[in-house]
């Protein structure tokens, strides 16, 4: 009997890069969704805020239904919660415990590891947007505008806030990242145009806030979803500028250990 040469010959080596990135994305997504605190931050709190502020007349949101003002703002808050706060805290503690250092010497390139984290953020945001849309529609939300404009704004906002989150996680101690990320989340909840219109603040403060990514994202989403138009170029420019700055600084100064 003639042996089939090579049939059982081992072929050691890494899996194809796309498969490794998809596997890392799936792993990061499962880890994020299994974490109780992260799930509370990314899913439950935005949904509760949407239901609370749309049902109770606590804040003057201007003309029109409150839900039409609040839904785009809470979508922006969801991006902040996942791309910035959640990712910064999780990555900061992975760095502290040496997880990133070990993954950095695996067959998966470091840039592909970060791409996997970004993929997990996008998957989570898709789930958030679906959940928040269902809640908002049940409360009487009537979205307008071009869906592609919404997707473009969400991607720009994700890039901007993800870059800043990775920059914080890769340069600060984990405890400092935890405190700073949570503090910024709370501050931007009230000063980011999410549930309180920026017109309620003094002119000087309002101008400064308009230069931040969360207010720009919330305002841009309202222009599309409430007014049925296109986002202001100023908001797009702010998001694009923070994307370049945040991702560039993260790539330059991120430390793996």
UniProtKB/TrEMBL annotation:
Domain (ABC transmembrane type-2): residue spans on this chain: 33-257
Primary location recorded for the protein, binned into one broad class: membrane
InterPro entries in the record: ABC2_TM (IPR013525), ABC2_TM_bact-type (IPR047817), ABC_2_transport (IPR000412), Nod_factor_ABC_transporter (IPR051784)
Compartment list: Cell membrane; Membrane
Transmembrane feature ranges: 39-59, 71-93, 114-141, 147-169, 176-196, 236-254
UniProt keyword annotations, A-Z: Antibiotic resistance, Cell membrane, Membrane, Transmembrane, Transmembrane helix, Transport
Family note: Belongs to the ABC-2 integral membrane protein family.
Protein name per UniProt: Transport permease protein
């Amino acid at each position: 009997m003639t042996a089939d040469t090579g049939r059982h010959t081992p072929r050691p080596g890494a899996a194809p890069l796309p498969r490794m990135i998809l596997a890392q994305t799936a792993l990061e997504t499962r880890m994020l969704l299994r974490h109780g605190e992260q799930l509370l931050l990314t899913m439950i709190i935005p949904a509760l805020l949407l239901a609370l502020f749309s049902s109770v007349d606590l804040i003057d949101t201007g003309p029109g239904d409150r839900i039409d003002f609040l839904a785009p703002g809470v979508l922006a808050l969801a991006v902040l919660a996942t791309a910035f706060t959640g990712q910064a805290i999780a990555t900061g503690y992975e760095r502290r415990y040496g997880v990133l250092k070990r993954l950095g010497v695996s067959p998966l390139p470091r840039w592909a590891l970060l791409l996997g984290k970004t993929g997990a953020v996008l998957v989570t945001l898709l789930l958030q947007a679906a959940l928040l849309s269902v809640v908002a529609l049940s409360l009487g939300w009537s979205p307008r505008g071009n869906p592609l404009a919404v997707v473009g704004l969400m991607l720009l906002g994700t890039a901007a806030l993800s870059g800043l989150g990775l920059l914080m996680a890769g340069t600060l101690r984990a405890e400092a990242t935890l405190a700073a990320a949570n503090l910024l989340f709370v501050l931007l909840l009230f000063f980011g145009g999410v549930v309180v219109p920026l017109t309620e603040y003094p002119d000087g403060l309002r101008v400064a806030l308009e230069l931040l990514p969360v207010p720009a994202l919330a305002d841009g989403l309202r222009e599309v979803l409430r007014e049925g138009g296109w986002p202001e170029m100023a908001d797009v420019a702010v998001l694009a500028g923070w994307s370049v700055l945040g991702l560039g600084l993260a790539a330059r100064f991120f430390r793996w250990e």
